[in-house]
Write a structure and sequence with these properties.
The structure is a homodimer of 190-residue chains. In chain A, 69% of the residues lie in helices and 0% in strands. By secondary structure, chain A is mainly α. The first copy, chain A, has one domain: Tetracycline Repressor, domain 2, CATH 1.10.357. In chain A, helix 4 runs parallel beside helix 8 and helix 9 packs antiparallel against helix 10. Chain A is elongated. The interface between A and B is large, with 42 and 42 residues. Chain A binds a DNA duplex (30 and 30 nucleotides) through helix 2 and helix 3. Chains A, B: InterPro entries: Homeodomain-like_sf (IPR009057), HTH_TetR (IPR001647), MT1864/Rv1816-like_C (IPR025996), Tet_transcr_reg_TetR-rel_C_sf (IPR036271). Chains A, B: One of its GO terms (molecular function) is DNA binding. Chains A, B: This is Transcriptional regulator. Chains A, B: Keywords: DNA-binding, Transcription, Transcription regulation.
Chain lengths: 190, 190
DNA sequence: GCATCTGCCTAATTCGTTTAGGCAAATAGC
DNA sequence: GCTATTTGCCTAAACGAATTAGGCAGATGC
């Protein structure tokens, strides 16, 4: 009956691990308490409620992801930076599916503004400095890349590419190739 | 106390509408029963359980989406077909957010194989006939398009583009432009 | 060594999911 | 038009998750 030593930090980190194991949706206070060897009610001193727990896991994931992207693109430019950035997303999603799902959890605007979401946007723009894009094309490109990364990784981890050849890793590199070449010859007609 | 006239069909359709109003995750049997003016338990004669309800809503959404895509791309090719296809996705997602979320619900492989998912894949390949892509590039392109459509629409409906200019509609057309030009000059290096 | 703080507890409420079994309205056979 | 059957919706009840209120005891500060 000794104390387990819970803190908000603690609980959230354990929640993130739980999410990776059983899925973000199933990372509930009840299940988390079970894992921590504690009564469910005890968690409510550290997180406000189920939504708060999920929000904190989401913020943790965004932070981790931003750290990794930041490390990966340092000193790289152009196509190198593009693949490094993209691979961080993909690797993170494959290694930490629950956290990655958490990173896509709908945050209210105020919370999102405080979190690491802004860092992501900034890094994406930094990445595009290696390509010669004026506004508004740069913004369009940011959104395209964000869409492709999120979309591909989502489909892949949902098993959408599982039952067909070639395997998804090949498509991934081919797509990065294509995006690189697209960014170099971005159509500025409109 | 007269009978409401529930059928599986009925219940699922009402569930889809509920999902559009309150979100797919919140489209629970309990809430649905409330809307239908019926006790929760009564639904269980028509759907097996909450998961079954969600699965059926997902299948309905996939079907509707496939029907619309099919109508939209008939008689079109190349860039016309591409934008028609893409706009069906986007319009559907904006008009029916709950159903669209449902369409991304993880189905077990057997169920997925029976559903309209395969029609989507076939139509996407048909769309690409307008571009000159040999295998495996065509498959890569299918996956790229799937990723972009899903990713963009997801981010947009999650409000990811809300607090920055230019507005998302402009990015959408710019991205379709870019994709069209990319498909016409697909890099076949690898 | 005492007072305080606080981490985790028990107890209780509310709500969603699900199963079992019953009654009555619709339907079909004659 | 009466009877038999189906079946749509019900009540009752079990179970589990989320959440709040309040209490005890172990850690901490003096």
């Amino acid at each position: 009956m000794g104390r387990v030593g819970l803190t908000t930090e603690n609980v959230v980190r354990a929640g993130a691990e739980l999410a990776d194991e059983v899925g973000f949706e199933q990372a509930t206070p009840a299940e988390l308490a079970r894992r921590l060897g504690v009564r469910t009610a005890s968690l409510y001193s550290h997180v406000a409620n189920a939504h708060d727990l999920k929000t904190r896991i989401a913020l943790l994931a965004l932070e981790e992801l931003a750290d990794r992207v930041s490390a990966a693109i340092a000193g790289r430019a152009g196509r190198d930076a593009l693949t490094a950035f993209a691979n961080v997303y993909r690797d993170y999603a494959l290694a930490h599916p629950g956290r990655f799902a958490a990173a896509r959890y709908r945050l209210d605007p105020a919370t999102a503004a405080t979190g690491a979401g802004v860092r992501h946007a900034r890094m994406m723009r930094a990445l595009l400095r290696g390509y010669d894009l004026a506004e508004p094309h740069r913004t369009h490109a940011v959104r395209l890349l964000g869409s492709v990364f999120a979309g591909f990784v989502d489909l892949e981890s949902a098993g959408g590419f599982e039952h067909s050849s070639p395997d998804s890793a090949q498509s991934w590199t081919a797509i990065l190739d294509a995006l690189d070449s697209l960014l170099r010859t971005w159509p500025t007609t409109s």
